[in-house]
Design a protein that fits this description.
Blueprint: H1 17-37, E1 42-44, E2 52-54, E3 64-67, E4 70-76, H2 85-91, E5 95-99, E6 101-105, E7 118-126, E8 133-139, E9 144-149, E10 152-157, E11 173-179, E12 184-192, E13 198-201, E14 206-209, H3 210-245, H4 249-267, H5 281-309, H6 316-335, H7 338-341, H8 345-368, H9 374-395, H10 405-445, H11 451-457, E15 477-479, H12 485-490, H13 494-514, E16 518-519, E17 524-526
Parallel strand pairs: 1-3, 2-7
Antiparallel strand pairs: 3-14, 4-5, 4-7, 6-13, 7-12, 8-11, 8-14, 9-10, 9-12, 15-17, 16-17
Helix pairs in contact: 1-10, 3-4, 4-5, 4-10, 5-6, 5-8, 8-9, 9-10
Length: about 525
């Protein structure tokens, strides 16, 4: 009742926060895709045949790059001096090896003495005239490599040597510059390996002009930094949410996933994080552990996350198996040398693929039963499964592609962040509704127990009033009766009675309150 009149109370409409958050998320995703797809580079491939590539017809001045993949001339277990390579080519004593490709993989129980510890690759190129300054982007091989152009060392990752005491493995990317006025160049690559159970190359060098290679390196570094920075900020944001409430553990698990995937992304691609490690075998060992565990341990964290949001779909037995296998792999990765533990890596990668498929199954079932956020998570998991399958097949030499797990993981973490944001929005909307409901309830209660009565008792709310609470004060009480009301009311209908009383209270109530009187109910006032 307001100013003595009975009023109808309506709940004001809530802001459509869910729709706003959805539009913001879509806008962010579209912006990110545009960013990642901008500054496109025309990359030519499959131009290398039998140790030779004729590139004179390639237009290198429109951001074109050539991926030097294909058949290079090959001498296994030899590090031939670059000056001697032309003679060896003339003798015809070389074979052809596909780049990228693994030259040898030791079996699970094969002795390390059988390992091919190195080799020499050679590629002759004819480049278009009119450009004398060229660049080659070299990615690390298994597990140290160097590149020569016309006999000059232009790039080296680690230290290549046939002597294990002088050999140093290393991860990273290097850009080699060279000049060739006549357009002819002979590239010679040395690869040495005493640390891993497989020898060879896992990626192809990229060739282009100095300007194009420089621009691509800068663009790739910026994109990697932006994606990694986005994942780090997502991780920190959800970590702060957990620290503030300490109730929703999904935010803690998700924050760790985001940070680990950011580390993984910084270890791949342009290897932005690799220079933080010492340039020796110990630094290489640590960087290898960080690179692998940053992604592999996310498998266990993913299922911990799924268990929290889909407890009915994630069964305990598969969860224990996944935790056990991930824990055993982490132990081997940390406490055994790569020569041993990396023989198991292909099997673990197959397990990762099976686990990803199981995750996809779990989310499909959750979506079928209409679980909250299941559709959003299904999209993220589906993209992650595709990228994981790509990387497993690429790692085992079954397809030619690029490593995409980091990008897939980013899309997955983005979908999870959107899911958690939706949860937060829904909670906020529910709180708003509860607050409005409480306000309406309090307003209704004040019709029967005025707030002044609570003030007399020294209480903030009706729920604070206990049985037996009382207070003694001197006060005056004013009683008012309407003359002949009983006779009048008997002659009126109920609706006319209510309108009569409300009309009286509308006139009389403000006067009482103006002079400090407190209306108790529809009939009594006190001063």
């Amino acid at each position: 009742m307001e100013d003595g009149k009975y009023m109808e109370t309506r709940q004001p409409p809530l802001t459509n926060a869910r729709g706003v958050s959805g539009r913001l998320a879509v806008a962010a995703a579209v912006g990110l895709i545009v960013l990642l797809s901008s500054c496109s580079w025309k990359e030519r491939d499959n131009l290398v045949r039998d140790g030779y590539a004729d590139l004179r017809q390639v237009n290198f001045w429109d951001n074109s790059l050539v991926r030097l993949s294909g058949g290079w001339r090959f001498w296994p277990s030899e590090l031939i001096a670059p000056a001697d390579v032309p003679g060896r080519l003339a003798r015809g004593d070389s074979s052809v090896m596909k780049v990228p490709g693994s030259w040898q993989d030791l079996g699970l129980f094969e002795p390390a003495d059988n390992l091919m510890t190195g080799g020499t690759l050679a590629l002759a190129l004819d480049l278009p005239p009119g450009e004398s300054n060229w660049a080659v982007r070299l990615t690390d091989a298994y597990s140290a490599c160097s590149l020569y152009a016309n006999g000059d060392l232009i790039a080296e990752i680690g230290s290549v040597s046939s002597d294990p005491r002088r050999y140093i493995p290393r991860k990273g990317c290097e850009t080699g510059l060279f000049s060739t006025p006549d357009g002819k160049v002979l590239l010679v690559m040395h690869v040495a390996n005493f640390s891993l159970p497989h020898t060879g190359t896992w990626d192809s060098p990229r060739l282009g002009t100095v300007n194009t290679i420089s621009k691509k390196r800068t663009a790739d570094s910026i994109r990697t930094s932006l994606v990694s920075g986005a994942m780090i900020f997502m991780g920190i944001y959800h970590l702060v949410l957990f620290l503030l409430s300490r109730k929703n553990k999904t935010t803690l698990v998700f924050s760790v996933i985001c940070i680990l995937m950011a580390v993984r992304n910084l270890m791949m691609g342009e290897r932005i994080m690799v220079p933080l490690f010492s340039p020796d075998e110990i630094g290489w060992r640590i960087s290898y552990v960080v690179e692998h565990l940053s992604v592999h341990m996310c498998i266990a964290l993913f299922f911990a996350f799924f268990r929290m949001i889909f407890p009915d779909e994630v069964r305990k037995a598969p969860l224990v198996a996944i935790y056990s296998i991930c824990g055993a792999w982490a132990f081997l990765e940390i406490f055994t040398p790569p020569m041993i533990c990396h023989r198991i890596l292909p099997y673990f990668e197959c397990f990762v693929l099976v686990a990803a498929l199981y995750a996809l199954f779990v989310v499909v079932v959750a979506a079928f039963y209409g679980r909250e956020g299941a559709v959003i998570i299904l999209i993220g998991v589906g993209l992650m499964v595709i990228t994981v399958a790509n990387d497993v097949l690429l790692s085992n030499g079954l397809i030619e592609s690029v490593y995409l797990t980091s990008f897939g993981m980013f899309l997955f973490t983005f979908s999870q962040s959107f899911f958690l944001s939706r949860q937060a929005v829904n909670i906020s909307c529910a709180l708003d509704r509860n607050v409005r409901d409480l306000e309406r309830l309090n307003t209704s209660l004040e019709r029967f127990i005025p707030r002044e009565m609570l003030n007399y008792l020294g209480k903030e709310s009706i729920v604070d009033v206990q049985l037996g609470n009382f207070i003694e004060e001197r006060m005056s009480v004013f009683f008012l009766d309407i003359r002949n009301f009983t006779t009048r009311s008997e002659a009126m209908s109920p609706d006319e009675n209510f309108r009569f009383i409300n009309t009286f209270l509308e006139k009389f109530g403000p006067l009482v309150r103006k002079h400090g009187g407190k209306q108790r109910d529809g009939w009594q006032f006190d001063f």
